[in-house]
Amino acid sequence: MSTAPDDDYRLYGELAGWWPLISPPGEYAAEAEYLAALLSAGADGGAGAGRPAEVLDLGSGGGCVALHLTRAGLALTLVDRSAPMLAASRELNPGLPHLQGDMRTVRLGRAFDAVLAHDAVDYLTTEADLAQLMATAYAHCRPGGLAVFVPDHLADTFRPGRGHGGGDRDAAGRQASFSEHATDPDPADDWIQVDYEFVLRGADGARQVITETHRLGAFRRAAWLRLIEAAGFEAGEGPGPEAGYPGERPAHIFTGRRPEEPGQVP
């Protein structure tokens, strides 16, 4: 989960300080290990000898994925729309550049070896928004570089379901957990609905229950591939849940390779 581009959800605003307890960083380790290998391989030939591959993380949220990618040797630049989530990420990743911006429209004026848009892409609910994300990724991806998109949901495979999560108490004695229920009110459109319940327990033992409904994108596989190609990338796919993708959720991976420029040495 990460920043919502269109709706000011409480989870990414006033509750952002609870993020490491709601979604503990350790839960991202296996998924990030897979993504680090994919991004590193995709950036080969561009990073150059002696320096790590530079990766732009669009919709970086609380920085849990970035924490593990950095440990794997990648150089991350983090962009997120939510100032409170960026603050939470700085606690985990104090040495990384954090920039506030919308993944659909941000322009940093430089290119990276690879671009990652993790589950924050779930909050794009129209093809127009998704096309803007592709344009942003293309604008920041060097020729020959790789863009990686990791949505949680596809319309082709979505099934209603329930889930839960949370972590242990922190050093201050706080604890948080959540439950979720995902449904598709109208299979003809490109979004689903997820109802969350967050249970927050303060250091003093006080208990607070917050409910919130989120609207998340669920596009068809064909739409992802079409929009990636329309942005100028060579579209591809990575192993999904059927191939044992190690993520906590049944994510699917789409890739976009920016073509080499004429005369460029691979």
Count of spatially separate domains: 2
CATH uppermost class of the largest domain: Alpha Beta
The value of Rg in angstroms is: 18 Å
Q: What is the fold-level CATH name, i.e. the topology of the largest domain? A: Rossmann fold
How is this structure best described in words?
With 266 residues, the protein is an alpha/beta fold. It has two domains: 10-155 and 220-257, Vaccinia Virus protein VP39 (Rossmann fold), CATH 3.40.50; 161-217, S-adenosyl-L-methionine-dependent methyltransferases (Single Sheet), CATH 2.20.130.10. The protein is 23% helix and 28% strand. It is built from six helices and eleven strands. It has helices at residues 19-22, 29-43, 64-71, 83-92, 127-139, 221-230, and strands spanning 54-58, 75-80, 98-100, 112-117, 141-149, 161-166, 175-183, 191-201, 207-217, 234-237, 254-257. The protein has a seven-stranded mixed beta sheet with strand order 3-2-1-4-5-11-10, sandwiched between helices. It has a four-stranded antiparallel beta sheet with strand order 6-7-8-9, with no helix packed on it. Strand 2, helix 4 and strand 3 (98-100) form a beta-alpha-beta unit. Helix 5 packs across helix 6 (221-230). The longest helix is centred in the N-terminal third of the chain and has 15 residues, at 29-43. The two termini are 36 Å apart.
